[in-house]
């Protein structure tokens, strides 16, 4: 819902000021977080939130919340997600936009986790919302991702954490999402995240500097705590 403020004296005020919901997020700091299924996107986002106070919005979590609501739309989404396929682009974009607007007044910036899944999604996001200042690319080996998701599947209750769907999600990641990284690399905003086995939170390494509120090392490499 937009909020409109106008001058009641039309004789002395010829200009109408309109503050729409879109205005609330038009200058928002946006960081995309991209990586394969089970690469650790959610885990790393939690660390960034704890350190920098950004708002974490996981596209997958937003979709799962809709499924859990039991709505008709949720039922359609569930069928697609169970197969490891992508839901229609507009659906997830609208959800992200609504969630951003809801947090706009209190947010320092947004970590958009698991998005974009394909170049077209990124282009549409930029048309409807704005451009990202950074893309964090969480790199992990395929076999590591599969191993983690199979383990997570023992307790997650996620319908897509099973061997067959994990394989489909991984295939789709290589086919549709990896081109996203090349697309944003040409703009110079991709930071590859290398996970290192550390027990302390962040590795303050490689002369880190703050870029867009995120710890960035030399050569654009971000090093965060994690392990195979
Ligand atoms: N061993 C190990 N496990 C990790 C690491 N990071 C995440 N995990 C585990 O791997 C699984 C996947 O991590 P998530 O952070 O949920 O990965 P994601 O990329 O957000 O995955 P999706 O939710 O499927 O998008 C979870 O069970 C985590 O606990 C890590 O650095 N080392
Ligand atoms: O922009 C998005 C984000 C997620 N999904 C769907 O949600 C599922 C789970 O996504 P999530 O990011 O939670 O997990 P990941 O696939 O990265 O392991 C995917 O397989 C897709 O079916 C989608 O279609 N579009």
UniProtKB/TrEMBL annotation:
<feature type="binding site">
    <location>
        <position position="158"/>
    </location>
    <ligand>
        <name>AMP</name>
    </ligand>
</feature>
<comment type="function">
    <text>Catalyzes the reversible transfer of the terminal phosphate group between ATP and AMP. Also displays broad nucleoside diphosphate kinase activity. Plays an important role in cellular energy homeostasis and in adenine nucleotide metabolism. Also catalyzes at a very low rate the synthesis of thiamine triphosphate (ThTP) from thiamine diphosphate (ThDP) and ADP.</text>
</comment>
<feature type="binding site">
    <location>
        <begin position="85"/>
        <end position="87"/>
    </location>
    <ligand>
        <name>AMP</name>
    </ligand>
</feature>
<feature type="binding site">
    <location>
        <begin position="114"/>
        <end position="117"/>
    </location>
    <ligand>
        <name>AMP</name>
    </ligand>
</feature>
<dbReference type="GO" id="GO:0009142">
    <property type="term" value="P:nucleoside triphosphate biosynthetic process"/>
</dbReference>
<feature type="binding site">
    <location>
        <position position="64"/>
    </location>
    <ligand>
        <name>AMP</name>
    </ligand>
</feature>
<feature type="region of interest" description="LID">
    <location>
        <begin position="151"/>
        <end position="161"/>
    </location>
</feature>
<dbReference type="Pfam" id="PF00406">
    <property type="entry name" value="ADK"/>
</dbReference>
<dbReference type="InterPro" id="IPR028582">
    <property type="entry name" value="AK1"/>
</dbReference>
<dbReference type="GO" id="GO:0047506">
    <property type="term" value="F:dAMP kinase activity"/>
</dbReference>
<dbReference type="GO" id="GO:0006172">
    <property type="term" value="P:ADP biosynthetic process"/>
</dbReference>
<keyword id="KW-0418">Kinase</keyword>
<dbReference type="InterPro" id="IPR033690">
    <property type="entry name" value="Adenylat_kinase_CS"/>
</dbReference>
<dbReference type="GO" id="GO:0046033">
    <property type="term" value="P:AMP metabolic process"/>
</dbReference>
<comment type="subunit">
    <text>Monomer.</text>
</comment>
<feature type="binding site">
    <location>
        <position position="59"/>
    </location>
    <ligand>
        <name>AMP</name>
    </ligand>
</feature>
<feature type="binding site">
    <location>
        <position position="121"/>
    </location>
    <ligand>
        <name>AMP</name>
    </ligand>
</feature>
<dbReference type="GO" id="GO:0004550">
    <property type="term" value="F:nucleoside diphosphate kinase activity"/>
</dbReference>
<dbReference type="GO" id="GO:0046034">
    <property type="term" value="P:ATP metabolic process"/>
</dbReference>
<feature type="region of interest" description="NMPbind">
    <location>
        <begin position="58"/>
        <end position="87"/>
    </location>
</feature>
<keyword id="KW-0963">Cytoplasm</keyword>
<protein>
    <recommendedName>
        <fullName>Adenylate kinase isoenzyme 1</fullName>
        <ecNumber>2.7.4.3</ecNumber>
        <ecNumber>2.7.4.6</ecNumber>
    </recommendedName>
</protein>
<dbReference type="InterPro" id="IPR000850">
    <property type="entry name" value="Adenylat/UMP-CMP_kin"/>
</dbReference>
<dbReference type="InterPro" id="IPR027417">
    <property type="entry name" value="P-loop_NTPase"/>
</dbReference>
<keyword id="KW-0808">Transferase</keyword>
<comment type="similarity">
    <text>Belongs to the adenylate kinase family. AK1 subfamily.</text>
</comment>
<feature type="binding site">
    <location>
        <position position="197"/>
    </location>
    <ligand>
        <name>ATP</name>
    </ligand>
</feature>
<feature type="binding site">
    <location>
        <position position="152"/>
    </location>
    <ligand>
        <name>ATP</name>
    </ligand>
</feature>
<dbReference type="GO" id="GO:0005524">
    <property type="term" value="F:ATP binding"/>
</dbReference>
<feature type="binding site">
    <location>
        <position position="169"/>
    </location>
    <ligand>
        <name>AMP</name>
    </ligand>
</feature>
<keyword id="KW-0067">ATP-binding</keyword>
<dbReference type="GO" id="GO:0005737">
    <property type="term" value="C:cytoplasm"/>
</dbReference>
<keyword id="KW-0547">Nucleotide-binding</keyword>
<dbReference type="GO" id="GO:0004017">
    <property type="term" value="F:AMP kinase activity"/>
</dbReference>
<feature type="binding site">
    <location>
        <begin position="38"/>
        <end position="43"/>
    </location>
    <ligand>
        <name>ATP</name>
    </ligand>
</feature>
<dbReference type="InterPro" id="IPR006267">
    <property type="entry name" value="AK1/5"/>
</dbReference>
